[in-house]
Every structure is written in structure tokens, then in C-alpha cells.
Structure prediction request, 251 residues.
Amino acid sequence: MIERDNPLEGYLAKIESRRPLSQDARDAFLALPVEPEHYDIYREIVREDDRTSRCCLIIQGCVSRFKTLPNGERQINSFHFDNDMVDLQSALLLVSDHGIRTHSPTTVLRIDCNAVLQLTIDQPEWAHAFWFDTLVDAAVFREWMLNVGRRVAVGRVGHLILEIFHKLSRIGRTEGYKFVMPITQNDLADAVGLSAVHTNRSLQQLREHGMISSIGRTFSIDDFEAMKRLSSFDPAYLHPAGPRVVNPECS
Prediction:
């Protein structure tokens, strides 16, 4: 992990990789008051039905957003990693409609919701940036709905592995096609809507077809193109090109 003077700089760099900001916008963001918190593995950062007052920025670690049924069964809706603002919607929503839980030791910055909203008023560039961030979240949710609703089991598992690989590669946590899987097989099952047994069987199929190999938590994607075809994976839904830039000539 890159050491930074201001812990907000990682998220700022992520935003500016999509679209550069003015110096005023940069300074205003870096001046936000933050409260760091550290969590061990499998701790809830936000609980369903919590009253919201702060947004959470992941500085280091892995968290998921999830929903639970009354019987305790969990459906994971997304995974988030370093420099993800995991719950921007909390700035506007009064109550959290889902939970957020860690899957590794995680450092979080809490940012007051009122400060986030004031930033968007004072610096409209940040309204644009935050809006785009939530739209990417929505695109991921749509892709996950397709994954759970329509793809066969091995395709679901393959698709999620490729998404995790792409996200980790963007924060420098891959080496070629190798990476440390930040979640367990049971977590994977909760994300793709399969039993642990069915998930294990799907992983074995990927191994048997020479698409992945693993030793412990270290995974290697051995046939990237074949796995993309099997899973119908297209990273366009992650919108790596960034947001539309307003052209003054069109106004």
C-alpha cells in the first residue's frame, strides 16, 4: 500500500484518474474532517436499519454490501476494496437498507454526511464525481443480477473471480494474472447465490478446464480469454473510461 500524507489522497487519485479536478476542488476534498477506524475480519461497519450519519471510505481491506433474510441467510451484493467510497448513498438516505461487513482487517475513514453534501454544493465538480461513482455501483448491481439470475453456476463463479481480479489489478494487488483471493469459498457462495458445495464444484470445473489454479488463497488465471468467454465477462460495466466531460460548445 502506498503511504500518503493525507489518507484521502488515494480516493482523490482514483477520481482524478477518470477526470482531473480543479485545485480548489482538490483542496476542499482533502480538507474534509475524517475519523479513521480499524476493524478485524468479519465485523459489521454498517448494519441494516442503522440511522446514517457518516459515509465510509475504505483505505485498506475488503468489505461487502449484503442483505439478510429473517432466517439469517445472506446475499452479498458487491465487494469493495482500497479507495472505494462504499456507501455514498448514506449522504442522502436517512436509514441504511443493507449491511456492510469486512472480509479482512480493514481501515475505514468515516466522513460526516453533512460535510459530503456541503462539498457537493461548494464544489460542483464533486457532485459530478460522486454521482458517477454511484452510477458505477448501480452498473455492478445490474451485472450481479444478471449473474445470479441467468448465468450457469460455473459462469457465475468465473465472472466474479474476473471482477475481483480486475478490481485488485487497479489498486496494484495483482502480479500478472496471480492474486491473493480476499474472500473465502463461503463468501463466494453467498455472492453468487449457490451452496458451498455447488460453488466448490464450479471452482473444480474451472481448474479442470485449465482456466484457474490455486494454492491456498493464491489464485492464478491460467486461460484468461477462455474464462472471459465462458463467463461472458466484459469489464465495460465497470466503466473504466470514466464519466462524460461537458463540452461547453454543446451548451
Observations:
- The chain has eight helices and eleven strands.
